[in-house]
Specification:
The protein is of the alpha+beta class. The protein is 31% helix and 20% strand. The strands form 2 sheets. Strands 7, 8, 9, 10, 11, 12, 13, 14, 15 and 16 form a 10-stranded mixed beta sheet that branches. Strands 1, 2, 3, 4, 5 and 6 form a 6-stranded mixed beta sheet that branches. Strand 1 (33-39) and strand 2 form a beta hairpin.
Length: 496
């Protein structure tokens, strides 16, 4: 989808970018309302509909929107761990929310209402928790080195039949579908997926939900977040969407928008798409693999590709990987432990990262190795221009702007410092040798490393952001610690 404003004109001091406003008036000539949305600390879209007249009045100057967006969790509970943005004495004052005119698209399933994404600022400067601003700043830093980052994200998600309050029993079909009411009465394992059993890449299973399946594909294209590959994945009711590769900041937006799209269309088709990292015990989780490469800003050439094979490469895995690519990989590997909360942000994220379920558990890498944390993809299994890394740690619950910012910043740090690969690939590990370092197995362990005084995360993002984001994760942990789970109740009700 071509952006409406490929070259936005800067807003003059004390005045409007009149040519932008004129363009907007033409663009929105047939509309009477506009939807705007920002992205909160958990990666969720939060927004509202405003009149066209209001939108045109604030399109370049911005409007007030509550800072509570960054002071509460995904269920609108104020963070229990104190941050700058949840202090009651501050009164949750407004930030300035400015529409990003380049983000324009129309929502095809909502009568083509226009949508613009927001960025948040105060005093003319981006506010620290605004993840879109963080990612754009990292893109600008990368551009100073002559590179542009490209990314693709693969999202797996389970699709459930949305039940009524009383479930799926005869007679309940006449009731309105109400997932929340159902879960107040019933255990989550009573939810029924759209299909049963394991059948990845099935050409027949989509028939059970053909209209829903095809609607997602077609609407994604019309919504400006097209799907490159779309299929069933191994697991009951699981689909996988590989979003078409794009500039890294656009890709982050597209991940958030695709989730919004899938959930919206699910309501139309009686389905509930679930992007939890690990919704079901005993089955693979939902991944959110990230494919990442750098290209030369001028020539567009892949900066990770090597023109000729390196006969002196320390390992055959990197024989086709450029020096820049090696530095980038070293930077990512050195930072992985310290940036884990930005890749795996929820308590549930770490239940996916267990052995025997196609998810990494060790700090590792390898050529075409789907068991590694970072899979390297180079010739001869792809063309040189497609050379890239696939980071397999994130689940579908990722905050895309945080995850992509963290990986790009970590890789750029490796390029800046010309870091050497200290960790050999899995293929070079001698038989019976100790396994590589284990990744954090809980959000608690990940946050402890994230906030450590010598954490690379502090170097990449600064102390203020690290302390803020850690506080939001501590809140998530507190909610988890205070919850009494079904497992605990069943285990201890009679025995202790």
């Amino acid at each position: 989808m071509s952006p409406a404003f490929p070259h936005p004109v800067p807003v003059p001091k004390g005045g409007e970018a009149l040519d932008e406003i004129s363009h907007l008036k033409v663009l929105l000539a047939g509309d009477n309302k506009v939807k705007v949305a920002g992205i909160d600390a958990d990666g969720l879209l939060r927004g509202k509909i405003i009149s066209k007249a209001k939108f045109l009045a604030v399109a370049t100057a911005g409007f007030g929107m509550s800072s509570a967006l960054f002071g509460w969790d995904m269920h609108d509970v104020i963070h229990t761990t104190s941050t700058t943005y949840n202090a009651k004495e501050g009164g949750f004052s407004d930030f300035i929310a400015t529409p990003d005119l380049r983000s324009f698209r129309r929502i095809p399933w909502e009568s083509n209402i226009p949508l613009f994404l927001l960025q948040f600022s105060m005093g003319g400067k981006p506010v620290m928790p605004c993840s879109r601003s963080i990612l754009k700043a990292k893109c600008n830093e990368l551009r100073q080195y002559g590179y542009q980052a490209k990314a693709g994200v693969e999202l797996e998600f389970v699709n459930y039949q949305t039940p009524s309050e009383d479930g799926y029993a005869a007679g309940s079909q006449s009731q309105p579908r109400n997932l929340a009411a159902f879960l107040n009465k019933s255990a989550p394992n009573q939810l029924r997926p759209l299909s049963d059993g394991m059948f990845g890449y099935s050409l027949t299973r989509i028939s059970a939900a053909k209209e829903y399946f095809m609607h997602i594909f077609d609407a994604s294209e019309a919504f400006g977040c097209g799907i490159e590959s779309w299929h069933t994945e191994s697991g009951p009711g699981v689909f996988e969407a590989a979003l078409t590769v794009s500039n890294i900041d656009d890709m982050a937006d597209k991940v958030s928008l695709f989730k919004y799209l899938a959930k919206s269309l699910g309501q139309e088709h009686g389905a509930t798409p679930c992007f939890m990292a690990k919704p079901t015990f005993g089955l693979p989780g939902n991944s959110g693999h990230i494919h990442l490469s750098l290209v030369d800003s001028v020539t567009g050439k892949n900066a990770f590709a090597r023109d000729e094979i390196d006969p002196n490469a320390p390992w055959s895995d990197i024989a086709w990987l450029s020096d820049t690519g090696r530095y980038f990989l070293a930077g990512v590997l050195e930072a992985l432990w310290d940036i884990m909360p930005l890749l795996a942000p929820t308590v549930n994220s770490y239940k996916r990262l267990v052995e025997n379920y196609w998810a990494p558990v060790h700090l590792s890498w390898g050529l075409e190795d789907r068991l590694a944390s970072v899979r390297l993809i180079t010739p001869p299994t792809c063309m040189a221009k497609a050379t890239r890394f696939e980071v397999r740690i994130p689940g579908a619950d990722l905050h895309p702007h945080h995850a992509l910012s963290a990986l790009m910043a970590a890789g750029l740090r490796g390029v800046q410092k010309k870091l050497r690969l200290a960790l050999p690939p899995l293929s070079a590990r001698p038989a019976n040798s100790p396994l590589p370092e284990v990744l954090p197995n809980s959000l608690e362990a990940a946050v402890a490393r994230f906030v450590a005084p010598d954490s690379i995360a502090r170097e990449l993002f600064g102390d203020e952001f690290v302390e803020y984001y850690a506080a939001t994760r501590e809140h998530e942990l507190r909610c988890w610690r205070e919850a009494v789970t079904d497992w605990e109740f069943k285990r201890y009700i009679e025995t202790v």
